[in-house]
User: Which sequence fits this backbone?
């Protein structure tokens, strides 16, 4: 496993990459309303990324055909935007995207409510977010990587939700996916020791029902096996000598 430790210059480039991505998401959030198509969201996200002078890192990544992953309701991740997929009142929609700035990647995801949500849907979104913060409370020098995983599992298990185990977080830097993998569920071992300068994409994916998932025939869209709702919350995080720095948070 080759985990990269970023220099001060690299950290500054990643900060800027992540700052611009967070700005894109702030603008996308305002566009998530009943009546918009998932393709319109993708086109807007692509335009906003390029307006920053950057390129979307998801577009054509291993063949993915869009700039923004737009996943609705029981779609966990990697939903392919479509002109005929129109958001409806009460839907939840997960946006997952990244960009490249001067060779450095950023990555983040949020689940937004469309119009008026059920209490159950709102709670799922909120507790998925809280699970992320439970995880990064352990993202400190001297702790081990899987302390993050175990903290996420410990937090979310109290609600009876299912944690997706087929997909995990990851290191990030000059590549979108770098070592190490960052599971969101309990591990038997402790994993590598965390060091200042590591940059990790930490991303709980939580289902209202079981954690089991399956892939649709498009070979990209991951859905819950039982048809339950799924939420996703991701940030690019820098390990420092003190508290972790969330690079994609505004």
Assistant:
């Amino acid at each position: 496993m080759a985990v990269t430790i970023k220099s001060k210059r690299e950290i500054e480039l990643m900060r800027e990459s992540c700052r611009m991505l967070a700005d894109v998401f702030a603008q996308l959030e305002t566009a998530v309303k009943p009546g918009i198509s998932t393709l319109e969201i993708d086109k807007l996200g692509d335009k906003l990324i390029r307006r920053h002078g950057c390129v979307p890192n998801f577009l054509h990544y291993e063949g993915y055909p869009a700039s923004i992953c737009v996943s609705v309701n029981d779609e966990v991740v990697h939903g392919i935007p479509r002109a005929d997929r129109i958001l409806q009142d009460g839907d939840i929609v997960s946006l997952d995207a990244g960009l490249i700035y001067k060779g450095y990647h950023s990555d983040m995801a949020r689940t937004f409510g469309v119009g008026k949500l059920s209490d159950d849907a709102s709670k799922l979104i909120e507790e998925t977010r809280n699970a992320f913060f439970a995880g990064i409370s352990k993202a400190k020098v001297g702790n081990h990587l899987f302390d993050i995983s175990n903290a996420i599992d410990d937090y979310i298990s109290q609600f009876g939700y299912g944690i997706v185990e087929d997909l995990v977080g990851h290191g990030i830097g000059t590549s979108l996916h770098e070592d190490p993998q960052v599971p969101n569920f309990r591990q038997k071992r402790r994993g590598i020791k965390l060091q200042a300068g590591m940059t990790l994409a930490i991303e709980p994916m939580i289902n209202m029902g079981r954690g089991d998932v399956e892939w649709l025939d498009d070979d990209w869209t991951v859905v819950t096996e039982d048809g339950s709702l799924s939420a996703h919350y991701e940030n690019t995080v820098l390990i420092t000598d003190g508290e972790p720095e969330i690079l994609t948070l505004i």
Residues 8-246 form a domain with the Creatine Amidinohydrolase fold (CATH 3.90.230.10). The chain has a mean pLDDT of 97.
